[in-house]
Amino acid sequence: MPNMPAPLPQEPDNQDQPLIQISSVSFTYPGSEQPVLNGASLALKPGSFTAIIGGNGSGKSTLCKLFNGLIPHYYSGDFEGEVRVAGLSAQDSTVAELSRKVGYVYQDFENQLVRPTVLDEACFAPLNYGLPDYRARATRALELCGLTPLATRFIWELSGGQKHLLALAGALSLEPDILIVDEPVSQLDPQHARQVYEVLRRLHRIYGKTIIVIEHHAEFIADYCHDVCLIEQGRVVWQLPVHEALNRLDDLHRLGIQPPEVTQTAAALTALQCATLLGGEQNQQDAVDSLRADRSNQQDVTTYPITTEEAQRYFARMLSAPIELFGRHKQQDSPPPQASLPAAESRTVISLKQAALTYRTIRKTDHPVLRGVSLDIAEGERIALVGNNGAGKSSLLRLIAGIAKPTAGTVSVLGQDTRTVSLEQLSRDVAFVFQNPEDMFIEDSVYKEIAHCLNKRSYEGAEATVERMLRAFRLEELRERDARLLSGGQQRRVSLAIGAATTPAVMLLDEPTANLDLATREELISTLQELEQHVRTVLIATHDMQLVSRWATRVIVLHEGSVAADGTAAEVFADTALIQRAGLALTQTMELSAGLNLRPHCSDPAELAARIHRILLAKESLPHGARPQLV
């Protein structure tokens, strides 16, 4: 990132007075009987860095749309309550007036980009406000976001991460006091996600901006945010400092919100230790219940680490010397054998032979997206396609689905050459769930969206299938709602239900866990497991490394349109240079495993907690490197 420009001039703020004050706000969308906001109240002080969390449909995005006046001025519905932003009444101010105070980057940030080039886009807002220094403002915003070298580039030439940063620059060009970013890391590879958050941190620390993020990824909240606001059924349940908030494990679990992996590991280890005291690991659930009861009755809750750095110190203290736990000394046993990956069936379902895909640009030059990809994918494999934004993951899925035709080489699916078979015929065997859910919506209700393909193709039992999908993806209460008016997470669930309804032989999912809370994410994995008897092969293009480590039997890494690696998750994540080059990142569990020198790396918090527990019980030897000097 370039050197930071001089801080923008800031008006002095009264730090004791809320910059945003929401009082008893209720709001109901047209066509819905249930309010999305139900007496919500919230106060945010100037200079805060706040995360808004909650389950899908809890009202997070709706709450933030109060801040710039989109509700009640743009979105119609039943509105009650009072909203004040930077001293202005939101009800008595226009969206244009509030937008000078509040910058907003939406979930679907690409829809905010309306001009052809990067500089044009950054100039758009101040130019439309008639500000004479619009170009200087745009230049400063691009420099803040590290986009100055791309000023003359066309928007369509940018990667997803660059587009997200450009949407951020567009919001910053009006130099607002408040910046709201809805799902900053969704659809971004880990390295671009970290880059977006680093920009937000600098805006907060150097320029004193008030930052509000709507976020599902607790690891980013732990690393960057100062306080957390929990929304449940349209109400603000609590607003707490980040460390205390992410240790409210009961509240987070109840609402399907995933705490940081290191926090889960520490809690799981405590439960295992308590279970040992109770007489065996089979009593772990009793121990968990007991711990929850104790924590709920305590005013000062015992806190667990929330960042990898904290966790390394926390666990290193435990492992710094061989100890005898609970007065028991066990003979060292060999570590339990690692579970082997299920063997894939030998029958090839998808075959790519030197497949290439090239687009013709507006400059009349060829832009290669995929470069001679050769892969054989067998029946029964669970494939994760990973790589940075622009690596070619979505394009590869489109080739397999027949949506795009290879410009060189061949692609065959179930023996069908995608160059000659019709898209209609191929779609009977292949279901494609798009990265942007709204691209799949053509009807005026959720029920009709799921039923559309089933009815068009005269599937037997279509009505029963739709009802089953509504239940499986928690969409029953939304069945009559227009899917285009739902929250991002709800739209994702609808798109997954559409794809799963036809039980295809091959299922292609493009970023399926983006915008999803923990409960829906778990439902997705459960649904995929249930569909295994019908779906021969599943390919998922994803930036979700937790999903990769938990679900995939095979990981294919794409970089600049070519296959950079192909193997198990353990093999891929062990290659540090590859991870850096391909825009990947280790999960917190993997980072902590590496920091404690535990080999092989553990894939999930429960596995890591069990491993540490065995070491503490002297049932597994402690690697020398896991005994760091504590300073």
Q: Could you explain the architecture of this structure?
A:
This protein has 631 residues and is an alpha/beta fold. The chain has three domains: 20-245, P-loop containing nucleotide triphosphate hydrolases (Rossmann fold, 3-Layer(aba) Sandwich), CATH 3.40.50; 258-341 and 594-631, no CATH class; 348-589, P-loop containing nucleotide triphosphate hydrolases (Rossmann fold). It contains 24 helices and 20 strands. The chain has a six-stranded mixed β-sheet. A six-stranded mixed β-sheet has the order 16-17-18-13-19-20, with helices on both faces. Strands 2-1-4-5 form a four-stranded antiparallel β-sheet, with no helix packed on it. A hairpin with an 8-residue loop joins strand 1 and strand 2 (37-44). The radius of gyration is 25 Å and the shape is globular. GO terms for molecular function: ATP binding; ATP hydrolysis activity; ATPase-coupled transmembrane transporter activity; cobalt ion transmembrane transporter activity. It is a peripheral membrane protein. Belongs to the ABC transporter superfamily. InterPro entries: AAA+_ATPase, ABC_transporter-like_ATP-bd, ABC_transporter-like_CS, ABC_transpr_CbiO/EcfA_su, ECF_ABC_transporter_ATP-bd, P-loop_NTPase. This is ABC transporter ATP-binding protein.
